[in-house]
Each structure stands twice: as C-alpha cells, then as structure tokens.
Design brief:
With about 290 residues, the chain is an alpha/beta fold. It has 14 helices and 9 strands. Helix 12 (about 235-255) packs antiparallel against helix 13. It folds into 2 domains: about 5-165, Rossmann fold (3-Layer(aba) Sandwich); about 170-290, N-(1-d-carboxylethyl)-l-norvaline Dehydrogenase, domain 2 (Orthogonal Bundle), CATH 1.10.1040. Helix content is about 55%, strand content about 15%. Pfam families: NAD_binding_11, NAD_binding_2.
C-alpha cells in the first residue's frame, strides 16, 4: 500500500484509534479535535501533527477523514474560512465516517465537487471496540473510482468494507444497521427477562444459543452484562436516538411505517428522561422491564 498525506478530524472514542491506525500504517497524519489537548495527546502517542483548525489539518492532504457527532458538527468542521474545504487541495478526497442524514451526504458531495474534490460517505459499525481493534464495518456511498482510491487506506481499521451505491447510500445502509440493532435488543431484552423469571443461568443460555440461529453480536457481547444490570459502556442511547431519527425520517420519505423502530425509539426517549442517556443501547432492557 502506498503512503499518503492524510488528516483525521474528530478524535473521539472512534476517531482516536482510527487515526492511530493510519499513522501506524505509515501515512503522514495530521489531526484536529475541538478539545486541543486531545489532539496533542494523540500526537504524542502516535507519529503525527496536531493542528489548530480543520483547514490547517487538511492542507497538503490527499485524503481527509471526518468522524464527529452529528450533521451540524460535520458542517462546523467542513465549511467556513477555517473548515476542511478551505484547506483541501484540488483532487483531494473527503471521507465522512460520521453517522449522518443521507441528505447531508448528498450536500457534502456537491460541495466537495464544487471545490474540486471528491466525497465518500462512510459510516461505520463495530463500536469503540471495533475501532480500537481495527475491525470496523464500513458502509460507503460514492463513485467506484473514488472508493477504490480510499479503500486500501481505510482497510487499516476495517474488517468489512462495501460500496453500496451513490453518495447517501452508505448512510442509508447504516440506517438499516441501526434498525437491526434496535430490533435485536428489543427481542434480546424480552428473552432475557423470560430467562431470568424462569430461573435459567444466563451465561449458560448465551453459551448455548450464540452458536445457533438466535446468535448475534448483541447476544454474545451484551446479554450477560444486561442480566447483570451493567450498562456503563458502549454506544450511548443519546447517539442511537439521533440515528433512529434518521431512520424514521428516511422511512417517512419513502412511505414506510416502521412500528418496531418507533417503539424502540420511544423507549429510548423514556430512558433519556430517566437519566440513562449516556448508557449503552443495551439499557433498553430497563424500559422493557418497566412496562411488564
């Protein structure tokens, strides 16, 4: 794999290790984070440069990766005098790993093209552990030629990577992913409550079922901790509600009704009101139990 000049914007629980993999792979890596101390810490831990603005981080780079919070966060680092687009050289590629609306992906593709650049929407799945272990699933939207240029670079932190179609299709695939997670957690929550009420040993149940048709990542990684009332880790429901909002809006756009997704979203809203907004999505079990 050839080495590139790259930048990574956003060093949260996902971006920090992802940027680290780029540096360890030999890419000259510049980073920006809203909390400057985090960028400086990263630069000390890995071989790279902490920059004061997204524009400075993007300057001279072949590819700029972004992984921040939501649509507005993305816009705040892409646009403006100090934004990524202001620093990108002609022909450079912008890759957004943030989970956003499909509309934003299309918007960014147009803005990048007008700036003389290409764009790939590339939301990820696998959580903090996936980022730290370099085994993320990456769902991409954009042009085949552009995807082929960035795929070998992203491969350093990916286990699975696919181009789903034009810009926005990566984000739509991530919506499908989040709907599946919500549905699985709903079923898993109800199943665990039955297992507990009937005196089954949860660890034994998981060890038995995870190899069969009921097996899932959620069962293997969350069932035991759910039964132990442990939820202080993983993907927060504040972020999941943002994602489910995209799902429901997209479904409305195409004339679909998603009753289970609506139910899960409403239960997460209740949990937020109860102070569980920063807990892992598996805390859904508390809402399911509450309504028994």
């Amino acid at each position: 794999m050839s080495q590139h000049n790259v930048a990574f914007i956003g060093l949260g629980v996902m971006g920090y290790p992802m940027a680290g993999y780029l540096s360890k792979a030999g890419h000259s890596t510049q980073v920006f984070n809203r909390t400057k101390a985090k960028a400086e810490k990263w630069a000390q831990e890995y071989q790279g440069i902490a920059c004061d603005t997204p524009k400075l981080a993007a300057q001279g780079c072949d590819i700029v990766f972004v992984c921040v919070g939501n649509d507005d966060d993305v816009r705040s680092v892409i646009y403006g005098e100090e934004g990524v687009l202001a620093g990108l050289k002609p022909g450079a590629i912008l890759v957004d790993h943030t989970t956003t609306s499909a509309e934003l992906a299309v918007e960014l593709a147009v803005a990048a093209k007008e700036n003389g650049n290409d764009f790939i929407d590339a939301p990820v799945s696998g959580g903090q552990a996936g980022a730290e272990n370099g085994v993320l699933t990456i769902m991409c939207g954009g042009e085949q030629e552009v995807f082929q240029q960035v795929a070998p670079v992203m491969n350093v932190y990916a286990k699975q990577m696919s181009l789903l179609g034009e810009n926005g299709q990566g984000q739509r695939c991530k919506m499908v992913n989040q709907i599946c997670i919500g549905g699985i957690l709903q079923g898993l929550s109800e199943a665990l409550l039955l297992a507990q009420k009937t005196g089954l040993d949860i660890e034994q149940v998981v060890e038995t079922l995870k190899h069969g048709a009921a097996g899932s990542w959620q069962m293997e990684n969350r069932a035991v901790t759910m039964s132990q009332d442990k939820f202080d880790f993983g993907f927060a429901i504040d972020w999941m509600r943002k994602d489910l909002g995209f799902c429901l809006k997209e479904a409305e756009r195409v004339g679909l009704n998603l009753p289970l997704t609506k139910q899960v979203d409403e239960q997460y809203a209740e949990l937020q009101q109860d102070g569980f907004g920063r807990m892992d999505t598996s805390v859904l079990m508390k809402a399911v139990a509450k309504h028994q």
